[in-house]
Amino acid sequence: MSSIKKIVAKESSFFWAVPAVTWQVLFFYIPVALIFLISFFRAGLAGGFPTATLENYIYFLGPSFFLVILRSLLLGLVNGILCLLCAYPVAYCLAIKINRFKNLFLFFLILPFWTSLMVQVYSWFFVLEHNGLLNTILLKLGIIQQPLHLLNNTFAIYLVMVYCYLPFMIMPLYSALEKIDRRVFEAAADLGATQWQTFIRVTVPLSMAGIRTGFFLVFVPSFGELVVPILLGGGKQLFVGPLITQYFLSARNPALGAAFTCISCIMLLIAVGLLYLFFKKYMGTTTAKGKI
Amino acid sequence: MRSIKLENITKRFNGEVILENLNLTIPGGKIFALLGPSGSGKTTILRLIAGFEEVDEGKIILGDKDITHVPINERHINTVFQSYALFPHLNVYDNIAFSQRIRKVPEDVIQQKVAKIVKTVHLEKHLYKSIQQLSGGQQQRVALARAIINEPEVLLLDEPLAALDLKSRERILLELIDLQSSLNTTFVYVTHDQFEALTVADTMAIMNPDGQIEQIGTPKEIYEFPVSSFVAQFVGSTNIFKGILRITDDKQWLEVEGVGACELVIPKQKEWAKDGALALMSVRPEKIDISKTPLEGFSNAVQGVVASIVYHGRSTQYNVRLTNNQVIQVFEQNEEHFPKEIIDYDDRVYLYWQKENVVLLEK
Questions:
Q1: pLDDT higher than 90, residue A28
Q2: Per the CB 3.0–4.6 Å rule, which of A62, A175, A259, B191 could disulfide with A56?
Q3: B103 close to A (CB below 8 A)
């Protein structure tokens, strides 16, 4: 009895982790394994015992499906870059320039993201539609004569994607920038660096961990994004997320859906690997070493 | 090599006056130490010279050039920070080379310069280490190398040794003195540590907690001839006596209540020193001799009882209670070459000092 108590006490951190790990295994790792398994099933409508096949994968050989994956990768990449460009100034100001009311600003920044994603996305309709807010303002100001087509195109997708994913970029950037000892900025200025040189040579390298984290936090989910391309893209262009959903829900062909999911995941992993190498080589925190 | 002149400097932070109408000339090509207690504004002076802060009023002149409004990165002044503020993402080499890369100096020239500097500061073995791998003393040397590679006209050192142990401090202080004489740069050394200031400075200024400069002089002048009781007490230890000044044709003394007449010498420049004036006198603990038996040949002798004894290693401190209940400190060297009388708690002792070792101070 006492020995069990001892083990529990000694390994208490393990016991506390059990519920979370169980949850993770039950609802993530087992389903992922199942999808992998299903992707090798022959699609049989009549039921019966399924047979193993590579047909599902062969079905996706060809440029049209490859294009869908490429377009989704591009969506993730461009969204990551746009979010970085939009988030950096915000995070920089919050972390370095502003000294008072920091938490208040952070609160206001996060506030919109406590509303449901659907509400956020739908609210953009009122801004972008034919006689929506943006067109009305532009017409009233006389900048345009005819209402612009702002919905159901790539522009709308990217605009709303950036809007939705911005906080995932701001938060890691903010926490990375806030950790920097401000005296190194003074040291850089003291050694002759202008503000811009300080930014490029000190601030950016020291916030690289935040840039990397934020970029992957945006890039990976953007790749599989479902809601935004469907609602704001008008379904004109196919992306990975909506296509997989179609196979599972409307086409009722889980085997094909599973195979496409696997292909997409592999492509995503390759892309993440390449980006990781890119960050390591060109955006690393170590610099070239001179020899004496 | 050029001197720095601060003219009528006033600096406020959030409405609080830190420095008011301060005037200070820092001689060129020497080590100038700014010594003062925490909060005396000495670091503010340094930050004003470096350009991290703007003066509210007044001028800063380097040589014959007004640099009051020259931006930090265009002043030929470099700083060694108290916390070192090294770039954590760069290795030792890149830290030292930083200012040269900013100035777009060719890489081969940078290599030669870095090679020379690391030899001066003894960092050859650590050139490609990351900053986190270095000890405090090594980081301090990197900070120094990074600041002097630029050949600044003025090197500012903000409590540079505060984070180091005593042995490293002593060693680096001596190296700093050597470095200054080989570079011929003006060093401004800010510290609250009197030992560092006395060791390193050619000239030093003492600041009081109100942000005013009390005295400027060589370390010896400051220590031996303090102009105020603040300076006397802040630099080194001292015993202050309060009394009424008496001057006759052949003798001058301070009438200390409960102790008696203490003979002293009044320098000519102390014009305020008139017969009957209230005054202070300062006697350093190491200038006082202690004995259980009466001695001849001293101009001053008082009696007291040993209240406590503190052993310091190289010296022993006796705290002696005088007849007026004032406790004064006496330092005796622990030289054991000759058998000495043993002084213990509650012993009645005589204290002796020469009138030349007494400093008269204004009340």
A1: yes
A2: A259
A3: yes
In tens, the pLDDT along B78-98 reads: 999 999 999 999 999 999 999
Does the pLDDT of residue A187 top 60, yes or no?
Answer: yes
A138-153 pLDDT per residue, tens: 999 988 888 888 888 8
Strands laid side by side in the B31-35 sheet: B77-80, B154-158, B186-191, B31-35, B203-207, B213-217
Residue A264's pLDDT is 95
Tokens at B254, concatenated: 């301070």
Between the two ends of chain A, the Cα-to-Cα distance in Å is 67
Dist. CA B13–CA B34, nearest whole Å: 21
B94: contact with A, CB 8 A cutoff: yes
Q: Does B85 touch chain A (CB under 8 A)?
A: yes
Residue B294: CB atoms within 10 Å? 10
Q: 């019966």: which residue's tokens?
A: A48
Q: What is the mean pLDDT of residues B314-325?
A: 92
DSSP one-letter code for A203? I
Query: What ipTM was reported for this prediction?
Result: 0.84
Work out the number of other CB atoms within 10 angstroms of the CB of residue A40.
Answer: 18
User: β-strands B154-158, B77-80: how paired?
Assistant: parallel
In angstroms, what CA-CA distances link B1 with B33, B69, B71, B188, B272? 16, 21, 21, 12, 38
Q: Considering only CB atoms, which residues of chain A are within 8 Å of chain B?
A: 181, 183-184, 186-194, 197, 201-202, 205-206, 208, 285-287, 289-292
- The domain in which residue A115 lies consists of 66-279
Cβ of A183 and B72 within 8 Å? no
The CATH code of the domain at B4-232 is 3.40.50.300
CATH of the domain at A195: 1.10.3720.10
Overall number of domains in chain A: 1
**H/E stretch holding B261:** strand B260-263
Locate the chain B residue with the closest alpha carbon to A185. B85
Question: Is residue A36 in a domain?
Answer: no
